[in-house]
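Fill in residues.
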């Protein structure tokens, strides 16, 4: 007669009862705790685990959370001990607890432990009605990053809460290449959040094999998905995508057009030939987007075509052209940018002034000085003159004697910026705006080293010199500098560091 397996005594030491303090005397209590440990003999559960179970069964919220944390420590610190397995089993069961706070904290602890045995139950917790539990489960799955849960994680990209989707996104990104096939399939999912998340992840993973599927996604019915596809294609940077992205510049939603333009800019030089063609497209959005892309690429070879577009009939196109030319910084563009300071559209004039400041060519100074009279653009002109620096000083000094007080003020402000002078006290505290202008100018010119100027500056700051004396001194000062020190001395204002206070 064959003996039953249970009747056979084994001499295998691995089958002997492990050493340690286990829960024999606690066994009757386990049945009353509302937490079952899957397939476990109660006598084999360590006493430390049972103690925490007892607290979870009878304690308040904070005590329960502390007990769950202790179970996590038992698992982490006892990876080679029997306590590890039982602590994990207990924690997994606690994901079904009636208390949402317990469930959420349990999910958090399981994430800290990082044991893949918890993944199926954590996936189940993503279907919870409680947002906090779903958030913690998603964060835990992000930390664990188990490639066997790809399908379920992709489904969770459809969660209504962005924070859950964000963590699931990071979990799938951590998994990486093994998730690609499932993400490509997800581009056809009925849920737009899943389709958008798939686009985002495929861009981050960056596999060129996904390009055809992402090009198809540029025609998705939802603009967010189309935008996500454009961004993903830019991150992948495959030249094959250029025609589709240029076509996406015609999209009715500006977010998609902007995404396509940025994507083309990220692709860079390989996109330039087709972008130059797109600049002549009859659709102004295509022209506009092509210019934005060229602005990102900053290729000087595109300057001639951009200069032609500076006379485009659409003001947005002209505006973007001026910005692009400023980004590229080619001095050949200065004459036409000076002309653009007279454009009928104030945004175009402002961007032209900005571009001239970025390029820093002194040929622009007279036109920018004149632009100080343009009420809509004068601040941009003053900032541009400040960027040009020393070559702008003589023109700004002339502007200080302009009949328009606003021109005087902006010229003084630009001079102060160029000189970098550390103005003692608060300039704005002066009541008389003309004294303000003269004081700023004197402080900037003080660094030329003209005899007596520093003393006069101090006197102005203390209010010891009346207004007429300041005017007289200022006019004679310019002549003195030009006669005794030469024009170069005035221009050397920026070459000397400011005096220490």
């Amino acid at each position: 007669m064959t003996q039953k397996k249970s009747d056979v005594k084994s001499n295998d030491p691995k089958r002997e009862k492990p050493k340690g303090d286990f829960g024999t005397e606690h066994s009757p209590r386990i049945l009353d705790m509302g937490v079952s440990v899957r397939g476990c003999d109660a006598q084999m559960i360590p006493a430390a685990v049972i103690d925490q179970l007892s607290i979870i069964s009878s304690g308040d919220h904070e005590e329960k959370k502390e007990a769950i944390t202790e179970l996590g420590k038992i698992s982490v610190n006892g990876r080679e001990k029997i306590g590890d397995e039982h602590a994990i089993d207990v924690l997994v069961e606690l994901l079904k607890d009636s208390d949402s706070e317990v469930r959420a904290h349990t999910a958090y602890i399981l994430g800290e432990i990082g044991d893949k045995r918890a993944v199926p139950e954590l996936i189940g917790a993503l279907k919870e009605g409680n947002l906090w539990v779903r958030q913690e489960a998603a964060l835990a799955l992000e930390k664990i990053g188990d490639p066997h849960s790809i399908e379920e994680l992709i489904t969770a990209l459809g969660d209504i809460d962005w924070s859950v989707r964000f963590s699931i996104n990071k979990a799938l990104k951590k998994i990486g290449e093994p998730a690609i096939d499932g993400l490509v399939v997800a581009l056809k999912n009925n849920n737009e959040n899943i389709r958008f998340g798939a686009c985002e992840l495929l861009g981050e993973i960056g596999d060129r094999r996904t390009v055809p599927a992402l090009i198809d996604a540029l025609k998705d019915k939802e603009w967010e998905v189309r935008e996500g596809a454009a961004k993903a294609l830019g991150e992948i940077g495959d030249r094959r995508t250029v025609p589709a992205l240029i076509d996406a510049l015609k999209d009715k939603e500006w977010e998609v057009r902007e995404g396509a333009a940025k994507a083309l800019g990220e692709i860079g030089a390989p996109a330039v030939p087709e972008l130059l063609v797109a600049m002549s497209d009859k659709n102004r959005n295509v022209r506009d987007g092509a210019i934005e892309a060229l602005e990102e690429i900053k290729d000087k070879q595109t300057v001639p075509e951009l200069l032609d577009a500076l006379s485009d009939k659409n003001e947005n196109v002209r505006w973007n052209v001026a910005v692009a030319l400023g980004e590229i910084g080619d001095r050949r563009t200065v004459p036409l940018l000076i002309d653009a300071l007279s454009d009928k559209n104030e945004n175009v004039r402002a961007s032209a002034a900005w571009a001239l400041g970025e390029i820093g060519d002194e040929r622009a100074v007279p036109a920018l000085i004149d632009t100080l009279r343009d009420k809509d653009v004068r601040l941009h002109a003053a900032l541009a003159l400040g960027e040009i620096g020393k070559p702008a000083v003589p023109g700004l000094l002339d502007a200080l004697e302009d009949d328009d007080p606003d021109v005087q003020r902006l010229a003084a402000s630009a001079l102060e910026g160029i000189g970098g002078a550390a103005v003692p006290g608060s300039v704005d505290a002066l009541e008389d705006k003309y004294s303000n202008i003269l004081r700023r100018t004197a402080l900037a010119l003080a660094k030329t080293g003209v005899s007596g100027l520093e003393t006069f500056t101090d006197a102005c700051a203390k209010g010891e010199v009346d207004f007429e004396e300041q005017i007289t001194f200022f006019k004679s000062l310019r002549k003195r500098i030009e006669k005794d020190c030469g024009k170069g001395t005035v221009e050397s204002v920026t070459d000397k560091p400011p005096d220490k206070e």
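The first helix runs from residue 27 to 30.
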